[in-house]
Amino acid sequence: MTTDEEQDAQAEKVEETRGARARAAAAAREAERKARAAAKLRENLMRRKSQARSRRAGEADTAQGLPAAKTDESS
Fold first, then answer.
1. Which of 22, 2, 25 is nearest to 10 (CA)?
2. CA 58 vs CA 9, 46, 67: distances in Å
3. 3-state secondary structure at position 41
4. Could you read off the pLDDT tens digit of each residue along the chain, which spans 75 residues?
5. Are 9 and 1 in contact (CB under 8 A)?
6. Rounded to an integer, what distance in angstroms lies between the CA atom of residue 47 and that of residue 53?
7. Helix H or strand E segment including 7
8. Which residues contact 9 (CB under 8 A, 6 or more apart)?
9. Contact by Cβ (8 Å): 51, 43
10. Contact 27, 35 (CB under 8 A)
11. Residue 8 contacts residue 16 (beta carbons within 8 Å)
12. Using CA atoms, how far apart are residues 31 and 34, in angstroms rounded to an integer?
């Protein structure tokens, strides 16, 4: 091989390793993002289950009418 061909071959290897590192970094970021999303979903599910349990354990709702309606006559 000549010097130019050797340099071209070496440059191609460098580009391949840069591309591999970039793909690996992107895959790591994606995996981290998915792990954070899964943790948030688990947290949300636990909170919703806890809310449902507390509603079942509480007393029956004694409010009459619409809960958002005002009880006084002011506007």
1. 2
2. 73, 18, 17
3. helix
4. 467 787 777 777 777 788 888 899 999 999 999 999 999 999 999 999 998 888 887 766 666 666 666 666 655
5. yes
6. 10
7. helix 3-57
8. 1
9. no
10. no
11. no
12. 5
Tokens of 48: 């919703």
Which residue in the block uniquely carries the two structure tokens 């130019």? 4
Q: So where are the chain's domains?
A: 1-54
DSSP summary character for residue 1: -
Residues for the chain: how many in total? 75
Contacts of residues 13-20 at CB distance under 8 Å and 24 or more positions apart, as own/partner, are: none
The CA-CA-CA angle for residues 68, 69, 74, to 5°, reads 130
19 CA to centre of own chain: 26
Single-letter code of the amino acid located at 1: M
